[in-house]
Amino acid sequence: MKNIRIFRISLLLATALTVGSCEKALDTEPFDKISEDVVWSTKANAETFIFSTYGIMNNLAGGPSTDARTTNLLAFDGEYNGPATVFNERVDRNADYGFNNWGAIRRCNMIITKVAKSPGISEEDKKALIAEGKFLRAMSYYSVARNIGRIVWIDRVLGPDDDMMLPSTGSPAESYEHIIKDLEDAVKDLPATKDRGRANKYTAAAMLSEVCLQALAYQNYPQAPNIDASNPLLEKAIQYANLVINEGGYTLESDYGSMFNDINPNSSEIIFAIYRKAINTASHNTPMQNMVPNMSNDQIKRGNGSPLLNSQIRIFEAWVQHGPTQNLAQDYLVIDKANPNLALPWDQTSQYKEAVDEMASIPTSLIPQANGEASVQSGVIKPGSSETVWTLTNMGRDARWSASILSDSSAQFYGETLTMGVQGNASRWLKMNGYAYYQSLSNMYWRKGIYNNVSPRIYVGIPTDYHYVITRLGRVYLNLAEAYLLKGDLTNALAAFNQTRTVHGKLPASTAITIAEAWEDYKRERRVDLTLENDYYWSLLRWGRYGGAANHGNAPGGTIPELTEVPRVIDISKNRKAYSIVEGSFFGANNVRIFDPSRRYLMPIAQSYLDRNAAFGPQNPGW
């Protein structure tokens, strides 16, 4: 497989230009530009322009991204500010959520138009390059449609004589019609060749399987969508998911975590990823900088923490801004000891019920409690039990747990053992008590998306490769499962999402016997499999639009409980014999979670655009 490295490069410096073309360009004036006839004269030159247009895909990348609008993570400082305006319902109609993507669309239209007219590119190559332009155009519009619903559809290169007062689409449904048409054209004409960082027909098909679900959810907006088993969008979602599964040659990764770090960035499960190289990428250019703590032995000693760190250098000196919540952790199931064919939340297993007394009081000498925080659940290991909170939360747990989250005494991380219980060396209490600042508020840190080989440490200016997984086979299986659930096909839905549950999670298959039970298992499965992949927020909106079993029995377009729940944190005593789950404001207004269904399913078109061009309107409902 080839490695297409996606960089932000200027056309002048692009290395893909042929030597002869470069000489011609440099023999003419002006010397700081390359003429269009050179750019579009050959396939290689055109590809240079295309490669530099792939920045469009950054809008779909993960990291904290839209997960920060949910209780997947607990954020503070800079990572908190933007998402908090959304979940606190402080967004107003002047907010700009990306309506203006017209520069990116112009580049896509130039690819489509100029390639078609090029005398130096073969007809076969033209088909593939034009399809690539349509794929990128669809992806740019998709990032707008998910946020705002309506787009300004432009399918040609505009010139000085064109009317620039263009209208927006009349509805989200119309927006998605354009996006789906572009993606279907891309599936038809893109090659099957797998070049890393570059779209092929299966990339387009994978995205189609998801776009069709999103389009279905926003049919008839703001009225309820038509969730009918025979809806053509469901058929398309299934068709394109099966195309990828049956013909793409991709396989599910048995070592789940390896897909997201240096161990296996080229996993056969990955359908499309953005690849960055160390030559122009440093730790602080990646999400890792805000996922790793900043701590020293002096700070640990002042907080009476242990163990001390072994490294001869300050191995942890990043700026952690967010960590996983107990809300998310709760969805990583544990295999029941009494019935190994059953996987349950850790506090519902037979081993938990036998070992824990939830009525016992816990002295503050074991687990302190901060002002403004309230315990919502607690427990103490019963006398005589050999269990600990650690064994109950780790033994037999979903394999994605340790691959995604660093919890108390997880496997070594950069040569160190991190302890996150009370008086641990990386607990939130170092921050709460003022001994250290950049500590996770949740007593957990992210493992997913953290490279193991950044040398000597993850720190400002330290070069590193990095990649963002945009879509993969597991995601396609989950899209397929959702389509079957909407059709009421329990058998095929279970078969689809049990793929990720058993291969990635190493869990027994779901035993759901009703559609409602299957929806519950599916939603949990999608959450843990795609966490930090810019999915959960959009999926919650989609499920809320469906209503019914997809959203706790609520009417379509109703309140989404997951977006009104507040984040939770688990504190574990030093001896691991007691725990307390707490809620609080957590250095901000993290406990203010509001969802206004009259407007939050779509963000506003920034009012400044409407003021300049009334044809962009009307404003989205509720704004």
Automatic annotation (TrEMBL):
It is found in: Cell outer membrane. One of its GO terms (cellular component) is cell outer membrane. Residues 89-213 form the SusD-like N-terminal domain. Keywords: Cell outer membrane, Membrane, Signal. Pfam families: SusD-like_3, SusD_RagB. Residues 1-24 form the signal peptide. Belongs to the SusD family. This is Starch-binding associating with outer membrane. It comes from Pontibacter chinhatensis.
